[in-house]
Specification:
The complex is a heterodimer of chains A (420) and B (272). By secondary structure, chain A is an alpha/beta fold. Chain A has eleven helices and 21 strands. Chain A folds into three domains: 81 residues, no CATH class; 174 residues, Rossmann fold (3-Layer(aba) Sandwich), CATH 3.40.50.620; 131 residues, Rossmann fold, CATH 3.40.50.1220. In chain A, helix 5 packs across helix 6. Chain B contains seven helices and 13 strands. Helices cover 27% and strands 26% of the residues of chain B. In chain B, strand 8 and strand 9 form a beta hairpin. Chain B starts with 16 loop residues before the first strand and ends in a 5-residue tail after the last helix. Chain B has a nine-stranded mixed β-sheet with strand order 9-8-7-10-6-1-4-5-11, sandwiched between helices. Chain B has a two-stranded antiparallel sheet with strand order 2-3. Classes of the chains: A alpha/beta (420), B alpha/beta (272). At the A-B interface, helix 6, strand 10, strand 12, strand 16 and strand 20 of A face helix 4, strand 7, strand 8, strand 9 and strand 12 of B.
Amino acid sequence: MNDIIRRDPRSEWIARNRLHPEHDAVVARMGGGASLQAAQWMGPNGIMRRNPHAVGFVGPNGIRRIDRSGAQIGNAAGAVRREAAAAPSRRQVRIEEPAFYVAVVADMPGGRLSAHDRDVLGLARQLADANAAEAGAVLLVAFGELRDDALGDAGVDRVLAFADARFEGYAPELRLTALGGVERQHAPRHWLFPDSPLGGAELGRRHAVRLRERPATQVWQVADGQCTGRGAAGGADITRALPRIVLALAECAEPVSDTTHEARAIALPAALPQVLRRIEDLGAVAVDPAGVALAEAEFILSAGNGIRDWDGFHHAARVLGATEGASRVAVDNGFMPRHRQVGATGTWVTARVYLAAGISGAIQHLQGIQQCDKVVAINTDPGCDMVKRADLAVIADSGEVLAALVELVEGVRKEQRNAA
Amino acid sequence: MQREGSRNRTGERRVKVAALVSVGRHPVTGRPRRAEYDARAVEIGLSLATREDLCLVHAGECSPETEVALRGYLGMDIGAVDVLQQPASADIVPVLEARLRDLGPRIVLCGARGETGEGSGLVPFLLAERLGWSLVCGLAEVESVDGDTMTVLQALPRGQRRRLNVRLPAVVTIDAAAQPARQSAYGPAQRGELRRLEAEVTPDRAARSWTTVPARKRPKRLKIVKAASARDRFKAAAAKAEGGGGQVLTGVSAQAGAEAILKLLREEGLLR
């Protein structure tokens, strides 16, 4: 569309004069021709003019209603305007010739950015955009397969993905040579790592030692070329000049929220040197789920007052490989030990999947499972609070459903064994 | 606590183990004590080597307060601790490196990070890099040591474990996943010996320009609502935590319900 505002003094005059016989037609034309009267239009000096008489709609009781969310106005012109308003909420940023790089080595569990990674990327964005005269680019270094398709929204300009299967698992030496290759090729001004155990904390320290740089660790604030980090096991705050390598804690900066970047994949450094691998990963070890602490269990099968067949429940937990939990009622009635209680008075759990069998969901219990990702409820009462909280709810007797689930899983396992 | 005695997991061959110990600080009272993770490292060392082959090394000041803390390690059935005397402002890595070269242990155990000073957790990394040894983080258990390799379990989040085969000599860091240290007994702690050794002092020049203050509480992150209109802002402020959007299966058989649950568990990759 043409950006130049063309004035039509005659139609403006008609639009101002509500008694003019052509008034309605002219106003409708100015508002895009869809509605009878335009609520707002661009005035001659580039100022938005509003017609308060055209705002809102007449409700079913004959009363004029104004809905500022715009959800109910059947006004095509309004809809177009609303879309236009919603679309550019994130500004597109492209950096063609970066003056320098800020490298972020993200943990990316499961190939997706974690909340900690996003915070560190937000910090990298601050460092890259600190000086308007020379625009830096944020370079994301990721190991393993990338499954996140919204890297640009997290503030990533360039992506270096070492997707080779060699980098999967525990391969700190190989990853270190890869980072060395990035260092030689791009020489980033800063290296940022999330200070998370077994992720950036280890790799970042190894990399810093290899580059003979002294990193700032456990950093939670960066401002004016100074950074503040925790020292003495959380007992002290150490402020120092911002070094080249920074290991930052979660919530060190706000994640990027108002711009979107291009996240362009760039070529990997050619020919990494061969390394002598001193550590060999022999794979994960099967852990008895009953021995895992409830607070850090990944998959919890929890029982409440609706469970009658306790042997069947324990059997189901064994077959599914779940850690057992219980509501307060089940513990008070003596069916489960006290250290298995989930909720405000028991353990606050962080499971990825929480399977609640026969639990109605008292508020204390729901508090205890706040941090669970997926909640599955099996309950006979469709109106209970647990069903409202659940991502998947099955309205049936919990004992029967658990028995059917055990049967299904055992059937699948038998098939797999026969096929193998 | 029931223990399996001083079990030796190294078979017939003797293996020399060094444990690096530091002075800890009680998180509530602030009094000096044995450092939590270092004590766990000593505990693992006791299960790997005999008392003669386990050597404890401390680099730092030896004042009456720190002596109390170091005697905490002696109370764990340890004969002596080597104290390399260093002022608080010194870089302890060169002197530890030299000491380890003299001792020549196959395994060096240490806590993941110190409880006083910078506490960056860099010392094991620097030692492993300078000595050219392997480095393993977050050790939960040593399964076996044979000849030039050892098999260890590494602790992963959520109580999971990973088995690693590590070439020796190796530096190993220990954190909360390893078994807790035994209680320190008073009598042996008083009888044990603190061998004070003179050592060269390398000042830590970079740390002079730092300012260190007692930790203050980190500001809580606010929920920032970026809303275009007043109505959106009001909705965000007044919104209740609503579950909503969950799938509810009513009037289905137990089999159909179980299948739906199984599908979800498969999607989350929880069934093996």
